[in-house]
Write a sequence for this structure.
């Protein structure tokens, strides 16, 4: 269980790092205004050559690899809600690296997400463990 949570935290760190790089890259590329094929082409061309966007995609891919490892080793009903902790990581990353202002109401939402993730983590500990099969004694040899 501890290993899974460590992989999850590493993955969420990768995801938040990727989000920060993607946001920085999109700030450099700019909006597609007006929306037209030419403008969409410009944004795509700028995006695939932008260092920050490429780093963002790389870190998102690392998160995806962690997610695949976790899916192979745990129940999805346990794992998927815990990925909502990415909202906490992303909010902190936005504050620290993008200098975004986070209002009190957003922090209340972050706290509620953390409480929900805590309930889910607790539910994994409270889940009844499957019983090990009873040891079967070897049969005595039959005498004629």
């Amino acid at each position: 269980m501890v290993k899974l949570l460590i992989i999850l935290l590493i993955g969420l760190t990768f995801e938040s790092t990727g989000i920060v790089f993607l946001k920085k890259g999109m700030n450099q590329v700019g909006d597609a205004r007006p929306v037209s094929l030419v403008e969409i082409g410009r944004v795509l061309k700028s995006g695939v050559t932008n260092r920050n966007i490429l780093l963002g995609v790389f870190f998102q891919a690392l998160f995806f690899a962690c997610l695949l490892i976790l899916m192979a080793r745990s129940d999805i009903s346990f794992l998927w809600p815990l990925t909502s902790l990415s909202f906490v990581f992303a909010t902190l990353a936005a504050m620290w690296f993008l200098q975004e202002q986070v209002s009190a109401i957003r922090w209340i939402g972050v706290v509620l997400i953390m409480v929900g993730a805590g309930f889910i983590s607790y539910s994994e500990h409270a889940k009844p463990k499957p019983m090990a099969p009873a040891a079967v004694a070897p049969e005595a040899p039959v005498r004629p």
Summary: The chain has one domain: 2-126. Residues 95 and 102 are 7 Å apart (CA to CA).
